[in-house]
């Protein structure tokens, strides 16, 4: 599979195994929908994204895998809805005729900059969350959660979509604020990773050194999972 680096493939198989163990084919369908839709959108956007590493796979699927091992269907699918919303927003946002604006201040930022959002990308993210939410509602395994928790399917659909969208927004806010940003001291070129060398090794100018894009993605899936869990009434 050309979408995954070897470590990424191992991580994807581990996530898949956890989801299959927890939810059987129902869970695998939702996981595949997330993974395949994201990869196809990346190809359609003709973004030459590097093959996914184990870190990136865990950042997007790790929370869902843990929730699957706990048998928490709505938590796992809430995490996947957030991951899907973020991926769809990024890829569809690439088609936006307008430059992205920072979610916090509204300042224009360059394409692909963390924390930048577009109307098109945001709408795409909502659709991505809705697709995962719809699959989760349709495929909910019987006996997975108390029937009284999500009494109506429309309620579940709205709540899971909201979980995904809130996760996506958390991703943008963290990307605009706490995520580490780097600059070349010699030419002001900006970078998202601290291991770059431009004219000189890049320097941290904003945010936290240890919080990179993968960390922000992981936090976004945690937000999606938490919102879904609160809505489902799982007690901690
Ligand atoms: Zn430079």
Main pleated sheet: 3 strands, antiparallel
- Spans of at least 5 consecutive residues with low confidence: none
Order of helices and strands: HHHHEEHHEEEH
Radius of gyration: 18 Å
Question: How far is it from the N-terminal to the C-terminal residue, by CA?
Answer: 38 Å
Can you list the strand order of the major beta sheet? 4-3-5
Tell me the number of helical segments per DSSP (H or I, 4 or more residues long): 7
Structural class: mainly alpha
Oligomer classification: single chain
What binds here, in terms of ligands, is:
zinc ion
Q: Helical content, roughly?
A: 55-70%
Strand content: 5-15%
How many discrete structural domains?
1
**Morphology:** globular
**Mean pLDDT across every amino acid position:** 91
Kindly state the number of beta strands: 5
Describe, in plain words, how this protein is organized in 3D.
This protein has seven helices and five strands, in the order ααααββααβββα. It has one domain. The radius of gyration is 18 Å and the shape is globular. 59% of the residues lie in helices and 6% in strands. Strands 4-3-5 form a three-stranded antiparallel beta sheet, with no helix packed on it. The protein is mostly helical and 236 residues long.
Which characteristics define this entry?
mainly alpha; three-stranded antiparallel sheet; two-stranded antiparallel sheet; 59% helix; globular
Summarize the structure.
The protein has 236 residues and is mainly alpha-helical. It is built from 7 helices and 5 strands; from the N terminus they run H-H-H-H-E-E-H-H-E-E-E-H. The strands form 2 sheets. The protein has a 3-stranded antiparallel beta sheet with strand order 4-3-5, with no helix packed on it. It has a two-stranded antiparallel ribbon with strand order 1-2.
